[in-house]
Every structure is written in structure tokens, then in C-alpha cells.
Design goal:
binds magnesium ion, single chain, PolyA_RNA-bd, magnesium, tRNA processing, Hypothetical protein af1432, nucleotide-binding, Hydrophobic Seed Protein, two-stranded antiparallel sheet, Beta Polymerase, domain 2, 7-stranded mixed sheet, 52% helix, alpha+beta, binds adenosine-5'-triphosphate, 459 residues
Length: 459
Amino acid sequence: MELVLPEEVRDACRLLNRHRKQAFVVGGGIRDLVLGMQPQDWDLATDARPREVERIFGGAGFRVVPTGVKYGTVTVYMNDLPLEITTFRVESNYSDFRRPSQVNFVADVKADLGRRDFTINALAYDPLRYHLCDPYHGMRDLIKEIIRAVGDAEERFSEDPLRMLRAVRFAAELGFSIDEKTKHAIIRNAELLNRISAERIRDELNRLLLAPHFQRGLEYLLEFGLLFVIFPELKEGWLFSQYHPSHRYTVLAHTMEAMRYTPPILKVRLAVLLHDVAKPRCFSRGDDGRGHFYGHALAGAEMAEQIMRRLHYSKRLIRDVVVLVREHMLALEMGPAAQRRLVARVGKELLPHLLSVRRADILAHSLKQVVRSLDEYDVFIGRLEKTLAEKIPLVMRDLAVSGRDIMEATAVPPGPLVGKILRKLWEEVLDDPHCNSREYLLERAKRILERDDAGRGAG
Ligand code: ATP
Ligand code: MG
């Protein structure tokens, strides 16, 4: 079997062979090549020890970085192409569920393939002899489009529980199914994912959420119980009826349905996943029996913040998702002043993402409601475009007066009062953009101050 690989990769294998060392391209690179996809990185496996690899490539004038010598890995730069070269090894004792506590180097590529997670990742290819080493029938599974654990699935997942999430992530990236035994082993061991660090879970989750078949990935997460290990809060909405004619799904089913309509943007997908997380906690029923969820957007924003902190997301991403969840109920019938205030709160950059969240949410309602809301949505967008085109001051910076102007005109000393006055003026301007003139605003500032004094005197 002949696979076309970059000449640099073949050169690296040639160099190792010249030193009487074996050399195979392994892992995801071969999988992707067979599938006709562009490999993201190149992994080589060899029986040469890390120090020998350093010597061989260093001696031939290539840049060598000892990235993980303890685990047998050296990165070699062939021209500009980085290759990860790892000595054949087996692992044991995954005591901390992160890295094997012991790595033993072995002489045989087959043993090395046996430690890998899935059959489709346990392929080794010799690009000089055009030979594929495939002891676990990875080719067969690639053709059948199946993710199957190498060896005993149960054992492999208890060694490293992250593999369960990787299985789902690969299914979402490749559009593959997960083999029955592998599936059952995940269901039985899902709770073990709790032992994995937040960062590793987060990174896999991000890739899953942005994968072409992310919908399938989410369904697997739910089916296997992994979703509720990562997001125990979402379990509250599972099978939770909404008792409302505009809904045809339970809370979590609605969320899953809404995900279908999201663009592949991480903050949007996270926001939609979490937008109704607080609904069960905010549930009440009216006299007519209808369900209500007053305050769920605000409560959801708080929960989303906690959840994302727990998963060690960046401050910036958390901030954006929190705003998206908090504002996700935006009323489509709002008038121009409310729209201006919305834009001021959300910011112009985040606004398109908020609209994506809103749209996805709308599309996951009852059909009658969808038709009605989509019409309203179009009207809303039309009006919003006009609002944005008006070039009115949408951030406080655009006010015709500054804090300094206020201090000079009113003799208020620097302090929180200045900010308070500015905010009041800004709200007026958002209500009526014609108010944004220097003379008018300074006059208003004085009025506000008088009222403030009067208020305090009376209090
Ligand atoms: P991608 O790069 O697209 O994520 P990949 O299969 O190359 O896919 P890597 O994380 O780059 O994944 O790992 C390279 C190879 O190392 C994998 O193909 C697999 O053989 C092995 N591997 C990676 N992580 C694990 C793990 N947790 N358990 C067992 N084997 C693993
Ligand atoms: Mg890789």
C-alpha cells in the first residue's frame, strides 16, 4: 500500500534506517492520510532511544528539541516541518490519571501500537517499504467507520479515562460510530472522567464542539453519561417538561436541538449549551398551568460563569459567554431605544454572536412558535441594522462630555459621583440620541447633581 507523505518525513525515516534503526509513521497522521485528510502533525516511532535520536538528527545538522525525553519523545525539525519522534514504548501504572508512572522502552513496533487508544490510531506505516503494520485491524475499522478501543476497552479507559472523551471527539470529527463494546465500557466508566484535569477535558470538549459532526458527539456524550459528568448542572434539565405551548421539547432536549442551529463558533456553542441551564431552578407554574422560568437568563449567566471557571476557560471567553447567556432572552419587539441600550450592554463585537444564540434558541421551539418568532426576528434585525447605521454614541466614550468636563462645570471632586453622572447622561442619550450635545449635557449634569443633593438631604 502506498501513501503519499512529505519528502521530509521519508528523509527522517531514511536517516534512521541508515543508522540501522526502524522507523514508522504512526498515529493520527496515517489515519488522516488513509481518509484523504490533511494530517495535522507527524508522529514517528522508532526503536532508537531518545538520546540516539538526538545524536542522529543533531549529527546530520537538524534542529532537535528534547520535548519529552522521559517519555521517549524528541522533536526534530526537518527544514521547517516538526516531527515528533518517539521510542517504541509500553506504559504502566496510570496512578495519577495523567501520565503513565512508568515508561518501558521496547524493541517492537507491535507492542508500541498496543498501548494506543483506538484501532484507527494504532497503525504504523513504513514509507520506504510501503508496508502497513496493522495488528489491531485499524484499516478495517477505518473502512467501517468505527472507533474501537485497542484491546480490553474497560482496562484502557480505567488506565486513562480521558480516552472516553477522545473516543467521542474522534466520532464527532470523523463522523464515525463507536463500537458496541467500547460504548458499554464508556457507559460503565463515565464517572472516572472526574479524575481527569479540567484543562484536558476542556481541550477535548472544545474540539468536539467545533467538529463537523459535533451533533453526534453531543448525543454520544448524553447517551454515555459523560455529559453529566462534565456538566452535572445540565442533568437538572433532563426530561424536565416545560408545560408551555410554544415548547415541544423538555429543557435539555430543547438545548440539544438548539445546538443544531449554531455556527461553529466556540463561544456561541458554549452559550447555547448553557443558555437554559438555570431553567429547572427557576421553574414555576401559573394559574393556567403554564410553566414559567422567571429570571433564568440571569441565574443561568451565574451558573455558566461557575461552570466555565471550573473548566478553566479563559477570563475573556467566560465574560463573553456570560453576556450571551444573560442576554439570550432579548425581546424581539424592542424599540430603537431598547436596542441602543442592548448594543451598549453587549458591545458591537459580541452582538452578531448574541443574534446567533437567539436564532438557534428560536429554531428549537414548537413549529408554530418558530414561524411566528422568525418573522419577528427578521423585523428585529431590520430595525437593528438601522439603529447601528445611525452612528449614535453606543459606548460611553462617545458622549459629547467627559468626566473632566463635568468636574469643571459642576465643581464635583474626582470620585464615583462623576461616573454616576456620566452613566445617567449616557442613558438619556441612548434613549434620545439628540441629547448628545455638550451644552445640553452639562446643563443636565447640574440638574442631576441638584436632585442628588436634594435626595440626600431628604434622606
Ligand atoms: P489529532 O492530532 O487529530 O488529535 P491524533 O490521533 O494524532 O489525533 P494525538 O493526541 O496527536 O492524536 O496523539 C498521537 C497518537 O498517540 C494517537 O494517534 C494515539 O495513537 C496516541 N495517543 C494519544 N493520546 C493517547 C491516549 N490518551 N491514550 C493512548 N494513546 C494515545
Ligand atoms: Mg496528532
